[in-house]
Amino acid sequence: MVELVEVEDESFENRQVGPDDDDYYTDTDSEISTDDEDSIPEEETLADRILALRDIVPASTRSYISAKVDITASWVKSGLWFGGKTLWVVSTSALLLGVPWALAFSEEQQILEMEKEMKMRESGSEMFASSTTAAAGAQLSAQAGQPTL
C-alpha cells in the first residue's frame, strides 16, 4: 500500500512583504468594482435606467430630444382638444337636428302608408261592387228569361 505524506514548502510558511490582509485594498484604476455591484438595487425599474442615460447622452442632444418631445406633445394635445370640440359640436347638432327630423320623416312615412292602404281599399271595394252588380245584372237577366212558376 502507498502512503502519502504532505511536504510543505518553506516559502509558504514565511510571511510575504506587503500590505496586511486586514487593510482595505481598492484598485482605483480598474473600471470594474465589486462595491458598485453591491449598491445596485435588486429591483431596478425602467425609469431608473432611463434616468441613468442622462450621464451618457450629451446635454445638447438631451435638449434637442426634449424640445422635440415637447413640440410633439403640444401637437397631440391641441389635436385631441380640437377633435373633442369637433366631436361635441357634431354630436349635439345631430341630436338637436337629426332626432326631430327622423321623427317627422317616420310620421310622414306612416301617413303615406295609410293613404296607400285607403286607396287599395277603395279600389278593392269598387272592384267588388262592380263584380257584384255585374253578377246581379246577369242573374236578373237569366231570371227574366225563365218563366216563373
What does this entry look like structurally?
This protein has 149 residues and is an all-alpha fold. It has four helices and no strands. The protein has helices spanning 10-13, 34-39, 46-52, 59-144. The radius of gyration is 53 Å and the shape is elongated.
In a nutshell, what does this entry contain?
The chain is mainly alpha-helical. It contains 4 helices and no strands. The protein has helices at 10-13, 34-39, 46-52, 59-144.
- Look at the helices and sheets and give the structural class: mainly alpha
Count of separate DSSP helical elements: 4
Could you tell me how far the N terminus lies from the C terminus, measured between alpha carbons in angstroms?
159 Å
Helix content: 55-70%
Shape: elongated
Largest sheet features:
none
Share of residues in strands: under 5%
Q: How are helices and strands ordered from N to C?
A: HHHH
Oligomer: single chain
* Average pLDDT for all residues: 81
Instruction: Return Rg in Å.
Output: 53 Å
Number of strands: 0
Q: Regions with pLDDT < 50 over 5+ consecutive residues?
A: none
Keywords for this entry:
mainly alpha
Strand and helix layout:
Elements: H1 10-13, H2 34-39, H3 46-52, H4 59-144
